Amino acid sequence: MKDLLYADADRFDCRDAFVATLEDLGAQDTAIVAVCNDSVGSSKLAGFRDRFPERLINVGIAEQNMVGVGAGLANGGKIPFVCAASPFLTGRALEQIKADVAYSRTNVKLIGISSGMAYGELGPTHHSIEDFAWIRALPDVPVVAPADRHETAAAIRWAVAHDGGCFLRLSRVGVPDLLPDGHVFRLGVADTLRDGGDVTLIANGVLTHRVMEAASLLSNRGIDARVLNMASVRPIDAHAIVAAARETGAILTAEEHTTFGGLGSAVAEVVVDHAPVPMTRMGVPGVFAHTASANQLLDDFGMTPDAIADAAQTVLARKG
After folding, report:
1. pLDDT tens across 193-240, in order?
2. Contact status, residue 93 vs residue 86, Cβ threshold 8 Å
3. Local structure of 219: helix, strand or coil
4. How far apart are CA 311 and CA 86, in angstroms?
5. Same domain for 159 and 17?
6. I need a labelling partner for 35 at 20 to 30 A (CA). Which of 4, 97, 164, 184 fits?
7. Do 161 and 31 sit in the same domain of this protein?
8. pLDDT average, residue stretch 104-125
9. pLDDT per residue over 70-101, tens digit each?
10. Alpha-carbon distance 147 to 176, whole Å?
11. CATH number, domain at 261?
């Protein structure tokens, strides 16, 4: 699939924004350290290692120990960024995240690299389509999925200033710029990328630009779609969701995650409690994602811009 609005040259890997920001902040604050699981390459931490060799801890393929080491460093006054492939960080080390980060309220920044279906051809064992659900069930651990490189940089700056643990979900799939350079990330606050009064489309991460394209297609059909970039999954922006429900009367969510327990579920919880309206959730429908390229997988699960626009038109038809 070729997107309607963006060429390949206009796409950027959010990991590059992550490491550039981390190195800049690390030069200003010696408390910032990185911990990884033999993933210096995939986390793109080589530059950080070369600049601050004594501040990179590579524990090897030992994700549970990695989170524990991060918690120990936090208890010693450091600001650890614990970086690993998201399926293994959240899956293998979930108990340590629960006990050593959430319950203990340690200042550990969990960075899930290559999240969602970004590993593509490596298949179901490497897809991370449950991480929103697992982590957002834990108290006191914000869950954030930036939509582009500018929001990624802003989220890293926020994470350093935030007193407590958090989980940032970063993909390796290139995405276009949607937010301005210098964007300020605000936890629990959605960004309105496009205003509209007929239906609201909500997404985050790599789905946000596809939803923006779907909104353009809907405009050509005479439908005015609002687009919310909901990077903060927990806490969720209930105010923006309720306003969208009341002002547009229909909501569609799209996410690179199972439809159980993720962004769509978080939005639905607000909708059903405060402003019930027709709603549909797009994502992986409760199955293991198969083996294909990352973008092909999104297409296969019905999240092309055209399919999103069609689904929005269907939910719009359910309005009273």
Report:
1. 999 999 999 999 999 999 999 999 999 999 999 999 999 999 999 999
2. no
3. helix
4. 29
5. yes
6. 184
7. yes
8. 96
9. 999 999 999 999 999 999 999 999 999 999 99
10. 9
11. 3.40.50.920
